[in-house]
Amino acid sequence: MTVTDTDRAWRARAACRGANAPQFLPPTSGETPVARCGRETAAKAICARCDVRRECLAYAVEAREPLGIWGGLNEIERSRISLADIRAG
Q: Which parts of the chain fold into alpha helices (H)?
């Protein structure tokens, strides 16, 4: 599974679109550890019920997205996996 610039149709089906989107990225000003945990927990709950979670995660790993929740994982969690891990399921 390689996610190219032309293969992003999955984004239209993502559960995070619209009003939920702000929970997936950190605020531009400081965020306390407690606030970050709450924000990430809420975002991950949305990811858990998303039909395109794998595609989202594959995109983020391949693109090396530096911030936010993608495919149910934050940047630290994504740094520990590879596309091969995602393909393996």
A: 33-48, 53-63, 75-78, 83-88
**pTM (2 decimals)?**
0.85
Comparing CA positions, the residue from 53, 75, 52 lying closest to residue 64 is: 75
Neighbours of 84 (CB within 10 A): 9
pLDDT in tens, 19-75: 778 899 999 888 999 999 999 999 999 999 999 999 999 999 999 999 999 999 999
- Decide if 3 is inside a domain: no
Residue 80: inside a domain, yes or no? Answer: yes
- Rounded CA gap, 51 and 75, in Å? 21
Report if residue 60 sits inside a domain: yes
